[in-house]
User: Fold these one by one.
Assistant:
Number 1:
Amino acid sequence: MNEIVFEILPEMEDERLDKCISGYMENLSRSYIQKIIKDGSVYVNDVSVKANYRVKVDDRVRFTIPDSVEPDIPAQDIPLDILYEDADILIVNKPKNMVVHPACGHYEGTLVNAIMYHCKGSLSGINGVMRPGIVHRIDKDTTGAIVVCKNDDAHNALAALLKTHDITRKYRAIVYGNIKEEQGTVDAPIGRHPIDRKKMAVNEKNGKRAVTHYQVLERFGQYTYIECQLETGRTHQIRVHMASIGHPLLGDSVYTNRKAPFHLEGQVLHAMTLGFVHPRNGEYVEFAAPIPEYFEKILSLFRKQM
């Protein structure tokens, strides 16, 4: 069992307990937090409470993350593009159309199914039975580097780095329009869309702070090739932020209605660079996932048209 204890700070005042824990432990999903609250594993001032409890300053929150249980999902022999592997971590170059972890109605063919087979039971269990080894994720249609943890010590170390924004995450993307400036920063909170709950949006009222730095790499008239570096890691952050400044991602059917000039499977977005302090030796390591073939073909076509 892994016990977590923390006190409520003034800025957390009056938040729902499940939301408060979600903000404190960003590597745990809200649904998983609600489950352990329902199971009676969460206490406020040594009293078991419900998920909708409104926390107060100086409340003492204590909860236990159960030991990992063998997931009731199949290990599958799915080929992995492995960029690096040691006893603690695995860096995978995720392809398009691969979901990171199982969810309702989608229990096979995910990255988790593949790493369960590859790692033969050697995965961290902190994120529960559905997300063994998973510290962060990227969208189904986003390609690129993702880190998987093989033990709880590595998972805790990387989760702490994520919380303090000390992991380097650089993405490559093609966006609609010609971005005027050479570089810039979008600092705008992201939360659930007020109407469409399946989407995220810049949400000043209920969003969490989100910061994306971007730099222009090449211009193609109606399109711009950019690098984005995440300071925070909110759901759909780059997609939402770039759309919010009038430059949605090419191929993103969720955050723009613009037609793409190619038959694309989702947004043109690639998690290219991932860097962090290694949990075992304390040295900074950095990994790069090569630009996928479909992305390179688009760049090549745009370059020929210039």
Note: The chain has a mean pLDDT of 91.
Number 2:
Amino acid sequence: MIKVTIWNEFRHEKEDAGVKAIYPDGIHGFIADFLRSDDIEVTLAALDDPDCGLPDEVLNNTDVLMWWGHCCHHLVPDALVEKIKNRVFNFGMGFIPMHSAHMSKPFRAIVGTSGNLLWGDEQKEIIWNIKPSHPIAEGVPEHIIIEKEEMYGEPFMIPEPDELVFSSWFEHGNIFRSGCCFYRGLGRIFYFQPGHESCRSFYDPNVQRILKNAVHWAAPLAKAERYPSSCDYYGKLV
């Protein structure tokens, strides 16, 4: 059983009627509905929950943390960011930042750069599957057409991805590295670009499949399998 925690600011869905109409139970609730299965257990967490929804008992029991944030990145405590980074680096927790989480504190702390990018209005997007042999691309077609999504464009201020699985084209000509894998310490990170709050990208069955695949890919392997002689009693790299 993979234990997934989906974190969401959960502000737009409360304050914007149009967003609430698309995601009445929150973006995190919608994602949870299509992720839950015989081998995925889901916990929901939000910014306004006690301890930002991630007290130690939740975070320390999470195999994969999914993160959606947009306008409230600055409200996430730095102490929590350090705990998340530690869970990824030293305990192999997977981390899946989605859409505007490119500017989230945890993502920037984990990959080590600003996460800045070019952005614009809502446009047609074509997501190209450029590494079809990758586990995250399993069962995903050559390309996915999303009729309306917020444009993200290069330059994207991230380290060179360890693996680039998807790349996007937008109708006004911009291109973007939209599915990026990173390895940090014991952890695996997958940044995925679609998911603007006023768009319906998470409804797309191929987007859903990618996120399901990403959860299985990012889930931690047993530490003995990865580093049989390099971990101390507490699972930290030595």
Note: Helices lie at 12-15, 17-22, 26-35, 56-59, 78-91, 105-111, 205-218, 223-226.
